[in-house]
Amino acid sequence: MSKHCESGQVSRRTVLLGAAGALPLVALGVTGAHAGKLSQASVNYQKEPHEGKHCSQCNFYIAPSSCKQVDGTIYPNGYCTLFVAKG
Ligand code: SF4
């Protein structure tokens, strides 16, 4: 009986510690998705290339459909005013 209670206390403490440890992760998850990224509208993102330049040539492009700087779905043929050619 006492053994059962001990293990119950240990597991409850583990759960509490786990919950406390998860809180910062949850906070990061909530803010991390859009942290530091700009809206497509604010950088005049368009789904077509501009003067031969497009996202798949850009330093910020993350294949297949993301960008380090701009939020949302980014097409390889898209373009925005932050375009920087891959070096
Ligand atoms: S052109 Fe703009 S949206 Fe496209 S990858 Fe570069 S920074 Fe991102």
TrEMBL record:
This is High potential iron-sulfur proteins family profile domain-containing protein. InterPro entries: High_potential_FeS_prot (IPR000170), HIPIP_sf (IPR036369), TAT_signal (IPR006311). Keywords: 4Fe-4S, Electron transport, Iron, Iron-sulfur, Metal-binding, Transport. It comes from the Bacteria. Residues 26-87 form the High potential iron-sulfur proteins family profile domain. One of its GO terms (molecular function) is 4 iron, 4 sulfur cluster binding. One of its GO terms (biological process) is aerobic electron transport chain. Coiled coil: none annotated.
